[in-house]
Structure formats: structure tokens, C-alpha cells
Amino acid sequence: MNPESPxxxxxxxxxxxxxTSSKNERVSDFYRHGVINPDTSIGQAPMxxxxxxxxxxxxxxxxxxxxxxxxxxxxxxxxxxxRHWIVKPEQDMTEDSIxxxxxxxxxxxxxxxxxxxxxxxxxxxxxxxxxxxYRYIEREFFNKAVLGLLQExxxxxxxxxxxIESDILKGRQGFFDKILRKPLEPIRLDYCRRRYNLPHYxxxxxxxxxxxxAELLQAQIAHHLNPDMPIxxxxx
Length: 236
Hints:
By secondary structure, this protein is α/β, with parallel strands linked by helices. The chain has helices at about 10-20, 25-30, 95-100, 105-110, 115-125, 135-150, 160-170, 175-180, 190-195, 205-225; strands at about 45-55, 65-70, 85, 130, 160. It has a single domain (about 10-225), classed as Nucleotidyltransferase, domain 5, CATH 3.30.420.10. The chain is built from ten helices and five strands. It has a five-stranded mixed β-sheet with strand order 3-2-1-4-5. Helix 6 links the parallel strand 4 (about 130) and strand 5 (about 160). Helix 1 (about 10-20) packs antiparallel against helix 2 (about 25-30), helix 7 packs parallel to helix 10 (about 205-225) and helix 9 runs parallel beside helix 10 (about 205-225). The longest helix has 19 residues, at about 205-225. The relative contact order is 0.19.
């Protein structure tokens, strides 16, 4: 599954069209809230970092098992307003996935299905710019989940800290490194954070990884980018 997103300049029109064409009231309501003005500077944009833990790596045969969200801007991370949900997937979790994220069968047995908390998730991201590390996980898994629950796709612009870091590393490559196709340094979340001397956090907790992603974007902007740049130069 590979949902198509609008081009960088089409998100405003995408929201406008879907606010009237979506048949599901919850989806159309989400789009009626509108998208942030593309010319808003990244330094002025209200943002929310998002991370999922899933039962596997492919959205085709895996599901969301936890969601972490934390609102932030370039000056502060609002941990007191963070949210973390464990959700019960329809399929049984494999032992490999349990080892990976540490969420057990008893955890999910006591958890609500995604349908029960979807409104809370949508309320938390409406009107904010969503920031993730590797957007294909969050975009594909969330779109698939909403499509299954509400029978309509739901897409929104994302800032991807992994893509930003990749672009930064490519820009630092020398001429011969490019000619010789020298591999980039690793761009997994923890490796990216090390380059900015950010503290190590245990991985594979959705809320911890959301906070880690927010901190990473703050560091990337502080070290390499202009906080006055418009968000349309970063979102996808």
C-alpha cells in the first residue's frame, strides 16, 4: 500500500476538496479544520510529533499497536500535553513483534481498539503540523487504518526528520564521495540524535520516540536550517 500525497503546493486545495467530497462526516470534519498556511515559518508553526509501534514493518499485513503524540514548537516540547495509547490489533501479535516493542498480549487484551480512540488522535493533530521519523510508516499505517474504519482515506502533510537528515548528509558529501557513491552515515533515529549530542533514549516506545523526534527536529533546525523558512519547504 502506497498512498499518494499531493504535491508540495497542493495541500490547501487537497483539504478544501476533501472537506466537501468526503462522505464520512468525521473525515470531512478533519479536512474542514484546514491545513496550516504553507507560508508559515517553521519557527511559528504549531507541531506535533507522532510515532507508531506496529505488529510488523509492512502495512499490508501489519497493524498499529501503539501511538505516541507530543505537541511542540522550536522553543519547547509540551510533555504535559503528550498522549500515549496502546491499541488492540485485530490480528494476534507475533513473538518477534513483542520482543521488538515490548507490548505484551496482556497489554493489548486490556487495550481499546483503534476505533475507540481515533477521534482523540484526530483531535490531537488537527490544525498542527505532524512531524515523524520516516514518514512511510506513519502515513501508510494510519491511512490504511482509517480506510478500514471509516471507508475513506485520510492524508495530511508530514515533516520527516529522516529525510531532512538524509538531505543534510548528502549536502556534506565531498565530490569524490559522490563519485565513489560512498554510503551515507546511518539515519535511524538514534544515530541521527547522536550527531547532535542528544541523550540516548530506549527505542520502540511510541511516546519516547515521538519526544525523540521532536528534539531531533529542533536540533536540525538550530544547526542547519533557517527557522524563518516556510513549512512548505519541508513538508511532504
